[in-house]
Design goal:
about 475 residues, OB fold (Dihydrolipoamide Acetyltransferase, E2P), eight-stranded mixed sheet, seven-stranded mixed sheet, 9 helices
């Protein structure tokens, strides 16, 4: 079996990240987007001495669990992997992925792997399963739609990338991870954009006008931000677009209509300057009794009610914080710090993105939390400058996990309790190694499903040292 070979086989299980496992001789073949119980045809894309990676070509036989997808774009859009499973089956599938990933990694007293001698269906005492999202579908509070086309020179589209494609864009006006307000805004903007006769930005030629449409909607207040992102290569009448958007009959309410200029060649939303066409550039969201102001480019969990489940889990794992000093490292916009602050003596957040720190400070002031401090800088360097000594630490690092050079410094604080939130489970698996070598043991671990219909989830772990 070599790269490029086409074969077929039965999918035995799905591991993290979402890859269906097929056995071919004595080798595992990991087929992206394949589900347990399917018979699939696939093409080998990578090969090493232990396993192969493969691309799904066709499902020859469906599993008994599959249902008709509830999204008209499923299979063509690259956004969701699990829309042919009921939500209950999605949770079971992800729960199994978490267990198989962490069972060998979590050490018991004496240093032995917790997975040794355990069958796949055996739950260790520290594993608390996967917590469901309260909202599914229509759970997202933010979408970044792209302008493009489905074929070179074709009609202008606005939506998400086609599955497996860097260039092709599908208009996802029936997307199931957002509510009807998003569909109306998308349809309105696309109809107007087509009327202008202007084209989308071409990634190779670097010409064209339309780039992205950013939409944010607060679940608690229903406030909506609409931000059209373009180059500076044309100047259509944006007043027409503004009036049409304000005329939509939405369930929520538009709080602001913005225009952001981005002349960068990178295929990302870069803020080269934002003009307020109408209203405000801020919407208000509420989580766990706290109020947060969200701007177009500030980080905020994309599933508001799911975030409440996540943060409530963190709060329960960290335990009693009365008269305690808490460090929230990689604190982002300070949401977790503010959730913990009401009962704590003091919470210090450290975050490398200056805009996120400014947002955290503003939110803390808005919520009347005087015992929160937020510092801007790299955790690796800032922890050397902190005069306070923490009683407990929360780690919520980016996808790549904690900087390996920062880990000894974090361990060196000698706190008894650490809560680690991972948006990429394999990064936590890696970081468990130095933490467990330093004497920390996993007391509790669970997943939180912030992304129904997709392969993604968050993991929260409580580690304690005697």
């Amino acid at each position: 079996m070599k790269k490029g070979d086409i074969s077929e086989g039965n999918v035995l299980r799905t591991d993290y990240p979402a890859r269906g496992i097929v056995l071919s001789g004595d080798r595992e073949v990991r087929v992206k987007d394949a589900l347990p119980g399917q018979k699939v045809r696939y093409r080998i894309t990578k090969k090493n001495s232990h396993r192969c990676e493969a691309m799904l070509l066709d499902v020859l036989e469906h599993s008994g669990q599959e249902i008709a997808p509830d999204c008209p774009h499923y299979g063509r859009c690259g956004g969701c992997s699990y829309r042919t499973l009921s939500y209950e089956d999605q949770l079971r599938l992800k729960e199994g992925q978490i267990l198989r990933l962490f069972q060998p990694a979590v050490k018991q007293e004496g240093g032995q792997g917790a997975g040794e001698g355990l069958k796949d269906d055996t739950r260790p005492s520290w594993f608390e399963g996967l917590k469901a999202s309260p909202d599914h579908p229509a759970y997202r509070n933010k979408m970044e739609f792209s302008f493009g086309d489905m074929e070179k020179g074709g009609e202008l589209q606005l939506g998400l990338h086609a599955k497996g494609s860097f260039y092709d864009i599908i208009t996802v006006d029936g997307c199931r991870i957002v509510d009807e307000d998003y569909h109306q805004v998308l349809d309105c903007v696309l109809a107007w954009a087509r009327e202008t006769g202007l084209g989308h930005f071409h990634r190779v030629a670097h010409t064209g006008y339309f780039r992205h449409l950013l939409v944010r909607r607060a679940r608690a207040t229903g406030e909506i931000l609409v931000d059209l992102v373009t180059t500076s290569q044309a100047s259509p009448d944006l007043e027409v677009l503004k009036d049409r958007l304000l005329g939509l009959k939405l369930n929520g309410k538009i709080a602001g209509i913005l225009h952001t200029t981005n002349d960068s060649v990178a295929d990302a939303i870069n803020n080269g300057g934002t003009e307020i066409l109408w209203g405000s550039d801020v919407i208000t969201e509420k989580l766990l009794g706290l109020t947060f102001h969200i701007t177009p480019f500030s980080f905020f969990q994309t599933n508001s009610r799911g975030a409440e489940v996540l943060y409530d889990t963190v709060r329960s794992y960290i335990g009693e914080t009365k008269d305690k000093v808490v460090f929230d490292l990689y604190s982002g916009t300070g949401t977790i710090a503010q959730v913990l602050a009401p009962a704590a003596a003091h919470v210090t957040g450290v975050e490398i993105v200056p805009e996120a720190v400014q947002s955290a400070r503003a939110s803390a002031e808005l919520n009347g939390l005087a015992n929160c401090s937020f510092l801007s800088g790299d955790v690796l360097k800032v922890v050397d400058e902190l005069e306070e000594k923490p009683d407990m630490i929360v780690l919520d690092p980016p996808r790549e996990g904690v900087n390996p050079k920062a880990m000894p410094k974090i361990i060196g604080f000698g706190v008894k309790r650490i809560v680690y939130i991972a948006c990429k489970a394999t990064s936590l698996v890696r970081d468990l190694q130095p933490l467990q070598m330093a004497g920390y043991r996993v007391q509790k671990l669970c997943g939180v499903d912030l992304f129904p219909g997709t392969e993604h989830f968050e993991v929260v772990a409580l580690l304690e040292r005697g």
